[in-house]
Amino acid sequence: MDNFQNSVGLVEVQSLTFAEPPDTLALASGKSLGPITIAYETYGTLNRDRSNAILMTHAFSGDAHAAAYHNESDKHPGWWDSMIGPGKAFDTDQYFVICTNVLGGCAGSTGPSSINPETGKPYALDFPMVTIVDMVECQRHVVDHLGIDKLLCVTGGSMGGMQTLQWVASYPDRIHAAIPIATALKHSPQQIALDEVGRQAVMADAEWDRGNYYGKGLPRKGLALARMIGHITYMSDKSMEDKFSRNLKDKDLSFSFIEDFEVEGYLRYRGDSFVKRFDANSYLYITKAMDYFDLSGDLLFPHGGTVDIRFLVIAFGSDWLYPAYQSREIVHLLKTRGVEATYCEIKSTYGHDAFLLEIEEETHLIKHFLDKTVQLVQKGK
Amino acid sequence: MDNFQNSVGLVEVQSLTFAEPPDTLALASGKSLGPITIAYETYGTLNRDRSNAILMTHAFSGDAHAAAYHNESDKHPGWWDSMIGPGKAFDTDQYFVICTNVLGGCAGSTGPSSINPETGKPYALDFPMVTIVDMVECQRHVVDHLGIDKLLCVTGGSMGGMQTLQWVASYPDRIHAAIPIATALKHSPQQIALDEVGRQAVMADAEWDRGNYYGKGLPRKGLALARMIGHITYMSDKSMEDKFSRNLKDKDLSFSFIEDFEVEGYLRYRGDSFVKRFDANSYLYITKAMDYFDLSGDLLFPHGGTVDIRFLVIAFGSDWLYPAYQSREIVHLLKTRGVEATYCEIKSTYGHDAFLLEIEEETHLIKHFLDKTVQLVQKGK
Hints:
Chain A is of the alpha/beta class. The first copy, chain A, is built from eleven helices and 14 strands.
């Protein structure tokens, strides 16, 4: 397999548990949570002065498995393997790459499907609301645990870009550079609306049972439906035309409610696959975290009027879920505060998915940006 | 009330029943249906030579009540009252305007909620699949019934635009002019995908009960959800920002799953209102009819290489559900066949809803176009 040859190889998920009694983590909501386990993976080697660490932050339905393979028979590598590995954009011969599963998630980190130590049962809706601030707080614990004072860079696309921006707001002195990709300073009402229909789809499913489906049913239909809506927003009108056009699944129209068009079959397949790997309550909590996210204006700079961080901001022309104007707003805000920011809008027909697919362009931009960052850091910028 | 003063006044829904035994209507699917009732309204007066009739065709969730009021205490006039009435774009002092509820609908015309004469119960999913061709065939029966040989104009927005184009394909000799608005020659995969998630939302609701909910439950949650998705597509990113921004319903974030943002409350309200007036099975049938619609290329001209019809094609800049490029495709096709077509793309921030809201611009364009059409018809064009 081509990727496997050119990959980090095999990797194991690790985890860190903190906020153990009598400790807890104070959440942005005012509530507290503990103990907390955060799953993470690392690729490459941390250098002696611990100066080559890059933190990847994942998108809504991602996980800590950003690159490499979990075992020899693994068919698919991590979600950004095309970008992380020897010689790749995030070159593991040079950098130490970390990726954590977000708080509230369902791939090894504490979330609503985790056991509530007070009851011995899954938290379900007793899980406190978490925010992007809290997610970053947990990542900071992992970074501390790894003995890293200052990250060379934080990066991520979509919700990963929000976490990247949150690092800027929460710990501006602990990162040299930031690469927010296909993201926004805050969710627009359209983005909130799209999240809300996803949540309503889950909650409308009788099997959801107010979140108490664990060990019983599963809100399969609702969660699949939410994901179908999601997939439409991840693609573009053009990429759907290129991939499906009006191609029929069978020779003729059925004149019934079975799936006639390939695009219908694709959405149903994507919805059904998602249900197998993602927790419905995590869907609710994480979308809400995105909707609450707002670092517009002064909110990006709670520690002062500016930050000493280099930025590379990337957007994609056909992305209508996180339109390029939202990335330009980030750049505009940074420029008004005298922050060094490079903006690149990549022409692409892939829509929001482009950040996972436009590898060649992204690699070119990011490699150059990281090289320059290393030079400046070494010069004691 | 301002509109009432400037309105047609009071109007009654009429209906026509045809395809009564032993007759039936042959449908595009190969099946047949009968008897069929079509609800319709008319505004203005048909002139002596029956040459001043304009047919309005409604969008997905519309009905025959395009203008005026049903009674003195009616708070809201018909769905396009701002365009139909004395002195308005479709001037009822001059024209005789007809609007029918589509076949498959739920506002007086035969649809899946109608009684199946063979069983004495609602058709539910025994209702045959209907297409835009069949809808137009029913309208033709109404036009015949009114004794009109040739319509001055057929017009409609969105799905109404599809019916307008279908008139061109089905009865090119029976219309002088056509005004398709915010529509397409065929549904794109994105449009099919959006319809499909709406259908899946309805069908995922246990109350839907394979369509047999009449007299029992109602797939309220599923249908409301489908409508919420719809409303996002009817607005634009910009119009949502203008209307809602990130305004909260209450003073603070709730840190719970109740509605925090105004936009969430709006969508839930719209979803709930829709359930009160629209039949869930009609939702399924009519969206399928739109998805099946395809008059691209030669399909628009089944009777020959061209048509003798004047066109005014209108699109809106921020409409992402029926993007302007789809209207330009209509114009391009017409021009290649030597058909007289005027194209106007109206700048608007309202998204797809613009065709119901950009009254001043539309009035200006349409009044002029109709005047010119009348002149040409009188000259024996």
